[in-house]
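Just scan this pair:

***
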Amino acid sequence: MYEWFIFLRGLSIGLIGALVLVCAVIFWRHYLAKMLVFFSLGICGYLLAPLLWGKTPLFYLSTAIADTIPLAFLLFTQAMFEDDRRPQRASLIAGCVYLVLGYAASYLPLLTGDSGRLYTIMGGLSRLLMAGLLTYSFYVILRQWRADLVEPRRRMRIAVTVIVCAYILTVVVVESLIGSGTVPMWVEVANSTGIALSTLFFIAFLALMGPGGLQRTRIEAGTPGASPLVVATQREIDSIIAAMEQDHIYRDMGLTIRSLGQAVSIPEHRLRQHINQVLDYRNFNDFLNRYRIDEATVKLRDPNSARTPVLTIAMDAGYRSMTTFNKAFKARHGQTPVEYRQNQLPIT
């Protein structure tokens, strides 16, 4: 059984290396590739730690690397499912606090010989932050499932959630049953098998998805030889654009891709393909924001609307809250709506 444990751990490390290689070859220009490497290093540290037990410096190094998994997983999910091109500041701060607390609780007692109440509290806070990072990662994966226009990635949201949640649930159940006792070798073998199979899944998925799943692959409407996944007719594209530019359907706060499809009489799956592959959007909310922010921008720099409250402008454009409006507006213009108006309109 121990030989299988060693074999499967080595196989998993080799497969993760292959995953990194696939990512480097296909997606080497993407920020996502860097986050995948970061996440993969954490998994390798986790896999190596039991094999290095007793070899103190290497063991502690591998466990320290393994502790980065929650932060690396969050940054990877944000890059993969939210198209982040750099780490979010809040995620980095939370992740660094988690690591500092965890390292201090784990390694300072080894250096000082003191394992007092302070280190216990720090360890508890670190575990709480770890749970928060992982929970938020699942929220990131699932929150824009309906709005995701990249179909392979949309399916992957569910697959990742099911696989990782099932894995975590299994680990929690097994650890609860075992308690503080020695982990049976069959559990270690099963754990290594699960990691190997999960890695194979990600390799196959990324290879099948190809570069088009992670970057814009615009297809001109009516172009001969267009993707077989979408036969974009000019009439359908024109009806989508007319609904947005002439009917201003984006002003509907409750507009979804399904209701838009019903309004323009286009099946939802084909509407997703058109907006993604022809109109060049990867997320339905980004598609809506384009029109909503355009309208709000015009009003914010219009002297005739100078006395109109920003909230009214936001709601007229289709936003439910100022928080969402501010975030989308700042992403476009690099400043808040209030700041933009102050810079655009002369002081009277």
Observations:
- The two ends are 81 Å apart (CA to CA).
- Residues 26 and 211 are 6 Å apart (CA to CA).
- DSSP finds 15 helices and no strands in the chain.
- Residues 151-178 form the longest helix (28 residues).
